[in-house]
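FYI - complex with iron/sulfur cluster, inputs then prediction.
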Amino acid sequence: MGTAQPSPLEYLSCLAGEVSLNDLLGGETMAYKITDACIACGVCKDECPVNCISEGDIYVIDEAVCIDCDACAGVCPVDACVSA
Ligand code: SF4
Ligand code: SF4
């Protein structure tokens, strides 16, 4: 028995942001994500120690860089930063 390899379609889903690389590869690390509740206030971006939060209509966390520190969740006024 070997480890199943992700299909090309699954990789495309990952690139499209539908699936995190960690999830795809069965990694052990968790990452935070930002939900649709985000009001784009920008507070979390300033708190992130690894600068992995990007501006947008709603803000977005780069899950490949996030170190799961919880700083963003602690400052978000609408609890939109959640452990993925
Ligand atoms: S959990 Fe920490 S590292 Fe991850 S996005 Fe939030 S502030 Fe940044
Ligand atoms: S702190 Fe919360 S509401 Fe503000 S930009 Fe970040 S995720 Fe969105």
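Residues 29-83 form a domain with the Alpha-Beta Plaits fold (CATH 3.30.70.20). The two ends are 29 Å apart (CA to CA).
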